[in-house]
Amino acid sequence: MKGEKEEGGEAVKESLEILLSREQIAARVDRLADQINRDYENKKPLLVCILKGAVVFLSDLMRRLTLPVEIDFMAVSSYGQSTSTSGIVRILKDLEYTVSEKDVLVVEDIVDTGLTLNYLCKNLLQRRPRSLKVASLLDKPERRKVDFIPDYLGFSIPDHFVVGYGLDFDERYRHLPDICILKRRAPVQD
Ligand code: 5GP
């Protein structure tokens, strides 16, 4: 897929290259769900989906779970229109329900610097859940600024900015069924 976007009066060329196909994602989500079904046997985990990027992962993952799950949502400050992290984490939407005495499984799209999940896990632990684990579809370990290892991981990927399967750039591309590398190129000046 190719496109152009106006930025400061200039058209920035964007192109997409498939990194993980829908088939690869489906097969991996199957295996993650098997593992979660085993680990949480006889439990009723609360899946905490981090908006908005993780919604597609959540909806695919939860339909493969044979457990009586509950779901809730949190939104934290995102990158906005930039592809670099600000390092500042702000809760934009908090959980509806209390997590005390619950087995909380945070469902996230991607771990990059680790700042978001590091902050979120500390915040959730203060609310005294029975247990707290993290399932992330993607991980970019090269960019880590704080130690963070997700308990369940879909794919470890190289340091590229990716979109699709819920992940956006400036609110675009979330609907793509594959995970793609977004390449942006400013026009060459004469
Ligand atoms: P961290 O705090 O780990 O640096 O960033 C986590 C958040 O940054 C993710 O939840 C996601 O919203 C955003 N992010 C990090 N890398 C990418 C990427 O390659 N593509 C997109 N669309 N978002 C990313």
Describe the model.
The structure is a single chain. With 190 residues, the protein is of the alpha/beta class. It has one domain (21-159): 3-Layer(aba) Sandwich (Rossmann fold). The protein is 20% helix and 34% strand. It contains three helices and ten strands. It has helices at 22-39, 55-63, 115-125, and strands at residues 2-7, 10-20, 46-51, 70-76, 91-93, 103-111, 131-139, 152-156, 162-163, 179-185. The chain has a six-stranded mixed beta sheet, sandwiched between helices. A four-stranded antiparallel beta sheet has the order 1-2-10-9. Strand 1 and strand 2 (10-20) form a beta hairpin. Helix 1 packs across helix 2 (55-63). The longest helix is centred in the N-terminal third of the chain and has 18 residues, at 22-39. The chain is globular and about 60 Å long. The two termini are 27 Å apart. The mean pLDDT is 91. Bound molecules: guanosine-5'-monophosphate (5GP). Guanosine-5'-monophosphate binds at residues 53, 78-79, 85, 108-116, 161-163, 167-169. Residues 53, 78-79, 85, 108-116, 161-163, 167-169 line the site of guanosine-5'-monophosphate.
